[in-house]
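Morning F.,

Quick status update on the modeling queue. The single chain you submitted on Monday has been processed. Sequence for confirmation:
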Amino acid sequence: MVFSPNRDVQKYYDKKGSTYDDYSKQLWSRIYDAATWRLTEPYIPKDPAAIVFDAAGGTGKWAIPLAKCGPKVVLGDLSEGMLKTAKEKIAQEGLQQRVEVKECDLRSLDFDDQTFDLVFCEHALCFIKEQETVIKELVRVLKRGCPLLVSGQNRYVLSLSTLQEGNADPAFSVLTQETQFVMRGSLDVYALSPDEFRQILETNGVAVEKIAGKLFTMPLAVSPKQMSSEKYPDTLFRQLLQFEVELSNKADAAALAGHFQAIGYKR
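C-alpha coordinates below.
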Protein backbone atom coordinates (compact mmCIF):
# COMPACT_ATOMS: atom_id res chain seq x y z
CA MET A 1 0.00 0.00 0.00
CA VAL A 2 1.29 3.44 -0.94
CA PHE A 3 0.59 6.34 1.45
CA SER A 4 0.63 10.03 0.67
CA PRO A 5 3.47 11.79 2.54
CA ASN A 6 2.68 13.32 5.92
CA ARG A 7 4.37 16.54 4.83
CA ASP A 8 2.46 18.81 7.21
CA VAL A 9 3.48 16.75 10.23
CA GLN A 10 7.06 16.39 9.03
CA LYS A 11 7.39 20.11 8.24
CA TYR A 12 5.88 21.16 11.57
CA TYR A 13 8.20 18.98 13.65
CA ASP A 14 11.27 19.73 11.56
CA LYS A 15 10.80 23.36 12.61
CA LYS A 16 10.16 22.36 16.23
CA GLY A 17 13.12 20.01 16.54
CA SER A 18 15.47 22.44 18.28
CA THR A 19 12.83 23.91 20.62
CA TYR A 20 10.40 21.05 21.20
CA ASP A 21 11.78 20.15 24.62
CA ASP A 22 11.08 23.68 25.86
CA TYR A 23 7.48 22.58 26.41
CA SER A 24 8.72 20.29 29.19
CA LYS A 25 9.16 23.33 31.43
CA GLN A 26 5.46 24.20 31.34
CA LEU A 27 3.16 23.03 34.12
CA TRP A 28 0.86 20.98 31.90
CA SER A 29 3.80 19.16 30.33
CA ARG A 30 5.42 18.32 33.67
CA ILE A 31 2.14 16.87 34.88
CA TYR A 32 1.53 14.97 31.65
CA ASP A 33 5.07 13.58 31.53
CA ALA A 34 5.09 12.52 35.18
CA ALA A 35 1.70 10.81 34.80
CA THR A 36 2.85 9.09 31.60
CA TRP A 37 6.01 7.79 33.24
CA ARG A 38 4.10 6.38 36.21
CA LEU A 39 1.88 4.47 33.79
CA THR A 40 4.82 3.32 31.66
CA GLU A 41 7.62 2.37 34.06
CA PRO A 42 6.12 -0.91 35.35
CA TYR A 43 6.06 -2.32 31.80
CA ILE A 44 9.64 -1.52 30.78
CA PRO A 45 11.75 -4.69 30.36
CA LYS A 46 14.90 -4.59 32.46
CA ASP A 47 16.71 -7.26 30.43
CA PRO A 48 19.60 -5.57 28.55
CA ALA A 49 18.91 -7.90 25.62
CA ALA A 50 15.32 -6.66 25.30
CA ILE A 51 14.47 -4.16 22.56
CA VAL A 52 11.93 -1.35 22.94
CA PHE A 53 10.46 0.56 20.01
CA ASP A 54 9.87 4.23 20.81
CA ALA A 55 7.48 4.96 17.96
CA ALA A 56 7.49 8.60 16.82
CA GLY A 57 10.02 9.18 19.58
CA GLY A 58 10.96 12.69 18.44
CA THR A 59 13.79 14.27 20.39
CA GLY A 60 14.48 11.24 22.55
CA LYS A 61 12.40 12.56 25.41
CA TRP A 62 11.26 9.03 26.26
CA ALA A 63 13.93 6.93 24.56
CA ILE A 64 16.62 8.18 26.95
CA PRO A 65 14.85 7.29 30.22
CA LEU A 66 13.64 4.03 28.65
CA ALA A 67 17.22 3.05 27.82
CA LYS A 68 18.41 4.02 31.30
CA CYS A 69 16.04 1.39 32.69
CA GLY A 70 18.04 -1.33 30.95
CA PRO A 71 16.76 -2.33 27.49
CA LYS A 72 18.00 -1.32 24.09
CA VAL A 73 15.78 1.23 22.36
CA VAL A 74 15.03 1.91 18.71
CA LEU A 75 13.77 5.48 18.32
CA GLY A 76 11.82 5.92 15.10
CA ASP A 77 10.45 9.21 13.80
CA LEU A 78 9.43 10.89 10.54
CA SER A 79 11.06 14.26 11.26
CA GLU A 80 14.73 14.80 10.50
CA GLY A 81 14.70 17.89 12.71
CA MET A 82 13.50 15.95 15.72
CA LEU A 83 15.92 13.11 15.07
CA LYS A 84 18.83 15.53 14.83
CA THR A 85 18.07 16.79 18.33
CA ALA A 86 17.60 13.21 19.54
CA LYS A 87 21.04 12.18 18.30
CA GLU A 88 22.65 15.14 20.07
CA LYS A 89 20.91 14.35 23.36
CA ILE A 90 21.70 10.64 23.14
CA ALA A 91 25.36 11.44 22.54
CA GLN A 92 25.40 13.80 25.53
CA GLU A 93 24.04 10.97 27.69
CA GLY A 94 26.58 8.49 26.29
CA LEU A 95 23.80 6.15 25.15
CA GLN A 96 24.80 5.69 21.50
CA GLN A 97 25.25 1.93 22.09
CA ARG A 98 21.84 1.61 23.75
CA VAL A 99 19.64 3.79 21.50
CA GLU A 100 19.40 3.43 17.73
CA VAL A 101 17.87 6.35 15.84
CA LYS A 102 15.96 5.54 12.67
CA GLU A 103 13.83 7.60 10.28
CA CYS A 104 10.53 5.80 9.70
CA ASP A 105 6.84 6.17 8.89
CA LEU A 106 4.58 4.46 11.43
CA ARG A 107 2.15 3.53 8.67
CA SER A 108 4.74 1.27 7.03
CA LEU A 109 7.54 0.09 9.32
CA ASP A 110 10.75 -1.46 8.06
CA PHE A 111 11.00 -4.07 10.82
CA ASP A 112 10.38 -7.81 10.82
CA ASP A 113 7.33 -9.27 12.53
CA GLN A 114 7.72 -9.76 16.31
CA THR A 115 10.90 -7.70 16.66
CA PHE A 116 10.23 -5.78 19.89
CA ASP A 117 9.66 -6.64 23.55
CA LEU A 118 7.76 -3.38 24.15
CA VAL A 119 6.21 -0.89 21.76
CA PHE A 120 5.71 2.60 23.17
CA CYS A 121 3.93 5.28 21.14
CA GLU A 122 3.32 8.57 22.89
CA HIS A 123 1.40 11.58 21.52
CA ALA A 124 1.69 10.64 17.85
CA LEU A 125 -1.38 8.63 16.83
CA CYS A 126 -3.58 11.74 17.00
CA PHE A 127 -1.68 13.38 14.11
CA ILE A 128 -2.06 10.45 11.71
CA LYS A 129 -5.23 9.95 9.68
CA GLU A 130 -4.60 6.25 9.07
CA GLN A 131 -4.79 5.33 12.75
CA GLU A 132 -5.84 1.72 12.32
CA THR A 133 -2.99 1.15 9.88
CA VAL A 134 -0.56 2.47 12.50
CA ILE A 135 -1.98 0.20 15.20
CA LYS A 136 -1.70 -2.81 12.87
CA GLU A 137 1.96 -2.00 12.22
CA LEU A 138 2.77 -1.46 15.90
CA VAL A 139 1.15 -4.78 16.76
CA ARG A 140 2.88 -6.55 13.87
CA VAL A 141 6.38 -5.66 15.05
CA LEU A 142 5.62 -6.53 18.70
CA LYS A 143 6.36 -9.98 20.08
CA ARG A 144 3.39 -12.08 21.20
CA GLY A 145 2.52 -11.63 24.85
CA CYS A 146 4.48 -8.36 25.09
CA PRO A 147 3.06 -4.96 26.04
CA LEU A 148 1.89 -2.16 23.78
CA LEU A 149 1.56 1.31 25.32
CA VAL A 150 -0.03 3.88 23.02
CA SER A 151 -1.77 7.19 23.65
CA GLY A 152 -4.70 8.84 21.91
CA GLN A 153 -6.59 12.11 22.12
CA ASN A 154 -10.12 12.25 23.51
CA ARG A 155 -12.60 13.66 21.01
CA TYR A 156 -15.20 14.40 23.69
CA VAL A 157 -12.95 16.72 25.71
CA LEU A 158 -11.40 18.19 22.58
CA SER A 159 -14.82 19.20 21.28
CA LEU A 160 -15.80 20.68 24.65
CA SER A 161 -12.61 22.75 24.67
CA THR A 162 -13.62 24.38 21.37
CA LEU A 163 -17.00 25.61 22.61
CA GLN A 164 -17.37 29.34 22.01
CA GLU A 165 -19.74 31.74 23.71
CA GLY A 166 -22.72 32.13 21.41
CA ASN A 167 -21.49 29.59 18.85
CA ALA A 168 -21.38 25.85 19.43
CA ASP A 169 -20.96 24.95 15.75
CA PRO A 170 -17.15 24.44 15.81
CA ALA A 171 -17.40 22.17 18.85
CA PHE A 172 -20.26 20.18 17.34
CA SER A 173 -18.30 19.79 14.11
CA VAL A 174 -15.32 18.32 15.98
CA LEU A 175 -17.58 16.07 18.07
CA THR A 176 -19.29 14.62 14.98
CA GLN A 177 -16.01 14.46 13.01
CA GLU A 178 -17.35 16.69 10.24
CA THR A 179 -14.12 18.64 10.56
CA GLN A 180 -10.86 18.05 12.39
CA PHE A 181 -9.52 20.22 15.16
CA VAL A 182 -6.41 22.05 13.94
CA MET A 183 -3.60 22.32 16.50
CA ARG A 184 -1.82 25.68 16.50
CA GLY A 185 -3.19 26.36 13.03
CA SER A 186 -0.91 23.70 11.56
CA LEU A 187 -1.85 20.09 12.26
CA ASP A 188 -5.12 18.19 11.99
CA VAL A 189 -5.91 16.24 15.15
CA TYR A 190 -7.62 12.86 14.72
CA ALA A 191 -9.28 12.24 18.07
CA LEU A 192 -11.14 9.17 19.33
CA SER A 193 -13.64 8.29 22.01
CA PRO A 194 -12.45 5.83 24.69
CA ASP A 195 -14.66 3.10 23.21
CA GLU A 196 -13.37 3.74 19.68
CA PHE A 197 -9.82 3.59 20.98
CA ARG A 198 -10.43 0.27 22.72
CA GLN A 199 -12.19 -1.17 19.68
CA ILE A 200 -9.40 -0.31 17.25
CA LEU A 201 -6.89 -2.00 19.55
CA GLU A 202 -8.91 -5.12 20.29
CA THR A 203 -9.86 -5.58 16.63
CA ASN A 204 -6.16 -5.66 15.76
CA GLY A 205 -4.97 -8.24 18.23
CA VAL A 206 -4.44 -6.34 21.48
CA ALA A 207 -5.78 -7.61 24.79
CA VAL A 208 -6.40 -4.28 26.51
CA GLU A 209 -5.49 -4.28 30.18
CA LYS A 210 -6.65 -0.72 30.79
CA ILE A 211 -7.20 2.67 29.23
CA ALA A 212 -6.02 5.35 31.63
CA GLY A 213 -6.90 9.03 31.32
CA LYS A 214 -4.28 11.79 31.24
CA LEU A 215 -4.59 15.57 31.46
CA PHE A 216 -7.82 15.73 33.39
CA THR A 217 -6.76 19.20 34.53
CA MET A 218 -6.42 20.61 31.00
CA PRO A 219 -8.00 22.19 29.04
CA LEU A 220 -11.18 22.58 31.09
CA ALA A 221 -10.34 22.60 34.79
CA VAL A 222 -7.32 24.90 35.11
CA SER A 223 -6.78 28.03 33.03
CA PRO A 224 -4.57 27.70 29.91
CA LYS A 225 -2.48 30.61 31.19
CA GLN A 226 -1.68 28.77 34.42
CA MET A 227 -1.10 25.42 32.73
CA SER A 228 1.30 26.88 30.14
CA SER A 229 3.27 28.85 32.72
CA GLU A 230 6.88 27.96 33.52
CA LYS A 231 6.64 29.66 36.91
CA TYR A 232 4.40 28.02 39.50
CA PRO A 233 4.68 26.73 43.07
CA ASP A 234 6.02 23.20 43.26
CA THR A 235 3.20 22.47 45.68
CA LEU A 236 0.72 23.16 42.86
CA PHE A 237 2.53 20.72 40.57
CA ARG A 238 2.49 18.00 43.26
CA GLN A 239 -1.19 18.59 44.04
CA LEU A 240 -2.27 18.47 40.40
CA LEU A 241 -0.14 15.40 39.73
CA GLN A 242 -1.70 13.64 42.71
CA PHE A 243 -5.13 14.54 41.33
CA GLU A 244 -4.16 13.24 37.87
CA VAL A 245 -2.80 9.96 39.18
CA GLU A 246 -5.85 9.37 41.37
CA LEU A 247 -8.23 9.83 38.44
CA SER A 248 -6.05 7.87 36.00
CA ASN A 249 -6.47 4.83 38.29
CA LYS A 250 -10.25 4.96 37.86
CA ALA A 251 -11.34 3.18 34.68
CA ASP A 252 -14.64 5.03 34.39
CA ALA A 253 -12.88 8.43 34.49
CA ALA A 254 -11.08 8.04 31.13
CA ALA A 255 -13.80 9.91 29.24
CA LEU A 256 -13.05 13.02 31.35
CA ALA A 257 -9.41 13.23 30.26
CA GLY A 258 -7.92 15.22 27.40
CA HIS A 259 -5.74 12.23 26.46
CA PHE A 260 -5.66 8.57 27.33
CA GLN A 261 -3.06 5.84 27.38
CA ALA A 262 -3.90 2.28 26.46
CA ILE A 263 -1.94 -0.55 27.99
CA GLY A 264 -2.36 -3.97 26.48
CA TYR A 265 -0.65 -7.13 25.28
CA LYS A 266 -0.34 -8.70 21.86
CA ARG A 267 -2.47 -11.81 21.70
